[in-house]
Amino acid sequence: MANQSRFDELLKRLRDTEKELEGEMERLLGEQRQRFHYTMEHGKVRFEKSVHAIQRQYKVGVWRYLREAKLRYVLSAPLIYVMIIPLLFLDISLTVYQQICFRIYGIPLVKRTEFFTIDRHLLDYLNAIEKLNCVYCSYGNGVIAYGREITSKTEQFWCPIKHAKRASYKHARLDKFFEYGDANAWRQDLKTLRKDWEDKN
Q: What pTM does this model have?
């Protein structure tokens, strides 16, 4: 029991530190916005008018960009872009899955929009290929993050048991899972945990 109390104390300190870190990151982001002369209005980036002309001075045209690119990078591009097919399939599959199954299980739906931040294509110093690459990477990472949240909620509902071996990956819901080997908690508290969808922090 003492070990559990110590763990809970460390976990609380970690969460407090995370909140403090988030506040500091927000402060630094505000400084960056001032430094690079943009604001956020209703979730959209707004640069000062003079900044657009300055950014365009750093833009490298598409043909020059391709001419100066390493041949192996150009040849590998189709392998990167073809991954859009499984990413789209995964995105659609995850959405259909949660829309049906989460409603059946009583799990709150994951808000897809919270996992996709696509704004780098608004930078005037990027050419069309660079903008496409940035949209692609933002979308791909968004799909994976969206899938991770859906999977972690599914795991909390069906098998919320910590692993015996410390996993190299970890999602935030894992902290509330039952200890490996705690059969009593599994039988006594599973129904309660299946309804505990409060914020992870």
A: 0.82
